[in-house]
Amino acid sequence: MNGLINYVSCGVLWLCLVVKAPDLLRHRRDPYLGAICAVLGLAGLCFLLGAPPTVGAVNRLSGVPNLAAPLTYAAITGYCAASQVLIVRWRGGPRVDRTVRRWTLAYAAVVLGIGGLFALGDAPVERRTDLDTYYATTPFIAQMIVLYLVAHLTAVTVTTFSALRWARRVRRVRGGLRAGLTLLGAGALCGAGYSTAKLVAVAARWSGRDWSALGTTVSPAAAGLGALLTVVGVLVPLVAPRVTEWRRAGRTYARLGPLERVLDDLLTRRALRLPRPRFASPATRLMWRQTSIHNALGHLDAYLDRDLYDRTRAGVLAATDDPERAEAAAWAAVITAAVRREADSASAVAATADAGSSPGAFPGSPVGPPLGPAPGPDALGRIADVLAVAAPAPALAAVPSGTTTAGTA
User: Fold this and answer.
1) CA distance between the termini of the chain
2) Alpha-carbon distances of 25 from 18, 30, 316, rounded to whole Å
3) Percentages (nearest 5) of helix, strand, coil residues in the chain
């Protein structure tokens, strides 16, 4: 066995740890964050130490046959304790610190027991993959094996029941908490398969049977799957809020598209857009689009027709009895009209400049008084919804304040 799966798993786990490390440095006193990092770090260490090439290297460099075994068992025990502490921190309650101390002390004693029993025992023949069954009848070494397996089985059993029971209690909670707890419980259940398979193989060895395949094939597969599910379960509640935020920002970004398209000519002609961000998050792209829209509305402020706004709002309100929809329709009308008036004004100024005469007055000149502050983010979305269905009627938008259409040809 070349240990490729172990090293890849270790790399993925420690990559997650590197991602979380800056948060840990900024919030060093956050016990919950510390427990998460401990789970990630120890899970990766278990895979690293359990890889056959690593086992051989540790034994060779130390000069002690099978020294990698108690080191791996100690890492597994620490990982079990960290997982249980994480569940306790996650769940909270008035006795969190006390429960954490009990688990920590109990598994610290297990680690000391593993080291002491290995020192008392004799394991001269190096076994990289089947030490559990090979030394299942050796004094002290057998007790060391049973100690770590029973401690591991106890921890993962408690973690399984705690996580799944809590997941049932929070089934109505949206987000990643329930999914994270379910995955964590499933990962712990796979971990129970790891220790159970090894215990069965050891017990078979006691009765004279050779079931070492359980320890060399079934157990590593269960351990790998369990670690994967556990780590994903730990990360889901952390990642889910950010993913939800990005999804919401992406939907809002797309929702504002019709409004930006109405303002596109003005934004391009007046160079009111900031450079488009590349490889940016949805939240950054949304901020860019909102900034562009606000820049355009600020430029159009003098062209916004108060009378058109009031008339449109009153008409839509009478028809729908929906103040928000009426306000959005009124803004859509005045924005569309203002874009046209500003474009007419720019064309007239350009034509006058080309003719070499004084600008004077022309139909596209600004109107007043100012309409007021620009709409907020929610209002911008409703305005874009109105524009997405159908732009305001050109005849309505083209009527300047204080004029009528009567008598026109």
Assistant:
1) 90
2) 11, 10, 55
3) 75, 0, 25
pLDDT single digits (tens) 345-391: 877 777 766 666 555 444 445 555 566 677 888 889 999 999 988 65
Give residue-wise pLDDT tens across range 279-317. Answer: 888 999 999 999 999 999 888 888 888 889 889 989 999
What is each CA distance from 6 to 13, 185, 195, in whole angstroms? 11, 22, 18
Neighbouring C-beta atoms of residue 116, cutoff 10 Å: 15
Q: How far apart are CA 44 and CA 181, in angstroms?
A: 20
Q: Which residues, 6 or more positions from 278, have their beta carbon under 8 angstroms from its beta carbon? A: none
Query: Closest Cα partner for 366 from 299, 304, 289, 283?
Result: 304
Distance from C-alpha of 263 to C-alpha of 340, rounded to nearest angstrom? 10
User: Residue 211 and residue 272: Cα distance in Å, rounded?
Assistant: 74
Each residue's pLDDT tens digit, 75-107 = 988 988 888 888 888 777 778 888 888 888 999
217: left (phi over 0), alpha (psi -120 to 50) or beta: alpha
Among 189, 116, 200, 197, which residue's Cα sits nearest to residue 155? 189
Cβ proximity of 157 and 191 under 8 Å: no
